[in-house]
Amino acid sequence: xxxxxxxxxxxxxxxxxxxxxxxxxxxxxxxxxxxxxxxxxxxxxxxxxxxxxxxxxxxxxxxxxxxxxxxxxxxxxxxxx
Length: 81
Hints:
By secondary structure, this protein is mostly beta strands. It has a single domain (5-77), classed as NE0471-like N-terminal domain (NE0471 N-terminal domain-like). The protein is 14% helix and 35% strand. It has helices at residues 45-48, 68-74; strands spanning 5-11, 15-20, 25-29, 52-54, 57-59, 65-66, 76-77. The protein is globular, with a radius of gyration of 12 Å.
C-alpha cells in the first residue's frame, strides 16, 4: 500500500500535481484516460479544474476517480529547487 493523497492541483495539458501524505509530490498525466468512457467528461477544461482530494485519493464532481496506488505508481516525482 502506498501513501494516500493529501492535496491535488490541476496543471497544464491535463496533468495533476499530487502531494501525498508522506510529502512526496508527483505529476500524474490524465491524457491516456480522456478517451475512455466516464473519463471523457474530463476533456472539458473547466470541469477538469474541479479535481479535489477525496478519501485518500482524488475525485471530480461527477465521480471520476483514480486508485491512489495508480496515482503513486504512475506519477512522476517532482522536485523543487
